[in-house]
Known about the structure:
The structure is a homodimer.
Chain A: H1 19-27, E1 34-35, H2 48-67, H3 76-87, E2 98-101, H4 103-115, E3 121-126, H5 130-137, E4 142-149, E5 152-153, H6 158-163, E6 168-171, H7 185-198, E7 202-205, H8 221-230, H9 236-239, E8 246-251, E9 263-266, H10 269-283, H11 288-298, H12 302-328, E10 334-335, E11 343-347, H13 354-363, E12 366-367, E13 369-370, E14 383-387, H14 393-416
Parallel strand pairs in A: 1-12, 3-4, 3-6, 6-7, 7-8
Antiparallel strand pairs in A: 2-9, 4-5, 8-9, 10-11, 11-14, 13-14
Helix pairs in contact in A: 2-11, 4-5, 4-10, 7-8, 12-14
Amino acid sequence: MTTPWNHRYAQRMHNMGSSLLRELLKLTQDSEIISFAGGLPAPEVFPVEAFKAASCKVLEEQGQRALQYGASEGYYPLRQWIVEHMVRYGIEARVENILITSGSQQALDLIGKVMINPGDLILTELPTYLGALQAWRAYQAEFTSIPVDEDGIRTDLLEEALCAGPKFMYILPNFQNPAGVTLSLERRKYLIDIADIYGIPIIEDDPYGELRYEGENVTPLVVLDAEKHNGKSGSGYESGFMRGNVIYISTFSKTLAPGLRLAWIVAPEEVINHCVIAKQGMDLHSSTLVQMTAYELIKDGFLRDHVRHIRDVYGYRRNVMLDALERYFPEGTSWTKPKGGLFLWVTLPEEVDTLALMPKAIENKVAYVPGSAFYAANGLPNTFRLNFSNANPEQIEIGIKRLGEVLAEELARLSMNQPVFA
Amino acid sequence: MTTPWNHRYAQRMHNMGSSLLRELLKLTQDSEIISFAGGLPAPEVFPVEAFKAASCKVLEEQGQRALQYGASEGYYPLRQWIVEHMVRYGIEARVENILITSGSQQALDLIGKVMINPGDLILTELPTYLGALQAWRAYQAEFTSIPVDEDGIRTDLLEEALCAGPKFMYILPNFQNPAGVTLSLERRKYLIDIADIYGIPIIEDDPYGELRYEGENVTPLVVLDAEKHNGKSGSGYESGFMRGNVIYISTFSKTLAPGLRLAWIVAPEEVINHCVIAKQGMDLHSSTLVQMTAYELIKDGFLRDHVRHIRDVYGYRRNVMLDALERYFPEGTSWTKPKGGLFLWVTLPEEVDTLALMPKAIENKVAYVPGSAFYAANGLPNTFRLNFSNANPEQIEIGIKRLGEVLAEELARLSMNQPVFA
């Protein structure tokens, strides 16, 4: 049937849907399925009571303001709070360097809108965050990828890719989504140096940095970059960052709650000004009520204790999953051991296709995301991502056991060379 | 000073900022200024207490769900509510035809992303909503415009513009922003007929439709379109709308509160599916907490009474402003008499430049938006928009008096042919 819409869609809409995976993931919403597929926080760590108290206080004391239009840049006291908060990580910004966004996803979309022309090349990690690919495909970006190992992006392979002239590099330095790996300090320094030499900006996406379960924080790229451009440590954004190469993104989705849709961009003021103009055309501003409530909740130090609690819960779940993987996964499988975040990454023998295997996993009431989702072009079909934050320890134990059985059966089948749907 | 960013911005960012007006409007935030410039609702009509109760209830009973990620399509019960709500206006949709957006601005951005290729021609009213121009300029749209008169867009001028092959028409049929005019039923019918003949979709933007202070509702374009495509009245979206030409947008910003950022799109399911994919890349979904709270507040009929209250308040303010205009504005000025909405439109003698006059108005502690902001290309410089919802009746009286004095002085000056900064 023809509709007046058939030929009306923009070119960018072609190829934006990966419908098979979408349909498979819908199936994982069955409540009997133990899903390691999503990137969902554990709802039981949400600070519901504290949030309710903050919401009541805001509506009682500043209700009219909370329900009115607000500034595109974001709620000023919340921007100030973010400035102070980031000092803990060595990031020295001013309020003018902060833009509040409706989740990190909007930050990625904004950066795409401000920077990407059709055909522009973006350098990503391999594998990388699915949502960034989605956001930037809409601007008709092309992608080039460099593999990660346990120390993050393989910087030894970087220079050739930089010669192709990418518009920017997209890096998730901490507990990367999906691989769970962390970029080493040595590689971070190299990355900052080579980005400077080639004049290529870096988008540093850091949703999980605060969720570290072991080891020490590694200095953010944005800080190394500021130090380099200032010639000295610690005077960051005041002057030097304005010449810097890095746009930094972080979010409240993993430390407070994703249902708020609240994140932020840190960038040179000139970049923020461009982003503000773009944001006006996108949604005017993020919800005033949500921003004021979040600020009310966290302004007096709530977040520090709360994040400690989250670390305890997720760190334990990570341990339970790593332990279960050791016990239940068959010979020939391997996985990353993340020091934080929400995800780990499993690699199977080369002949396994995890997308083709998914219906079987779902049938056995367990789910993952096939690795192919996280590649801009063709990825390694023998990988998948597991989330360890959402399911509780008991579910993790059972789910990994189920998945181990599916994998063992598949490996046995492959060793006998049977077709999948025999 | 060069920065690595200078040459990194996308082409679309050129020409997106109208900096002079932006700077002038910043000045109007001075608390001594009576501003008719914004499009802000009156904060004193916000249902703060009821909102607080709803927010507490949601967090108490479904806190974990309210703080978790949600579906890109929007909160299902809210989409159902919207379906039922719209039946009052003759719009028959199914849940599958509804997408929740982060304000109407996001609906416009989404439509741009889904439909506009660089260079595509968009047909708008003249003047038209500034935010639509802003959203679609980011997709490098071109614009062609048809003037409005007291009965809305001049449909007698439409056919020639349609021959140029616009991607879609953008129409604000009720109490248009900025002109305050309403499209007559006769013209609506003609518009639907000619859109069908030329196969050009219509974007019907209806933020103010519920805020009518006199006269009867006029049938929405989306309903006329459904009737046409079904050959009979009232079976709307069930089948016929899926072949229809109209995308309809409405919002809770003017009936509940703009600080929520909550609006919706009604469209054929295939268009909604495209929009959902685009929205995933833009912000994943709109705030779960805000959607659930809004639903909790309105699910039992709250909105009908509340909108009646808003109509009383704004209708009275409109009357006060029309009355003050009669008394204080000089000979040679004229204005529209809107039957609803938030705005009216003033036309001055041709030699007056309202942008150039703005500093003088601000000096006299009163503000408007110069008409030139609402034109895609060159507009009539002798016009401006006045908002009558935000200032209270006393302020309206004083502000219109001040503005009348500024205009009288300007007209006297012009009749003596003095330079502006004599």
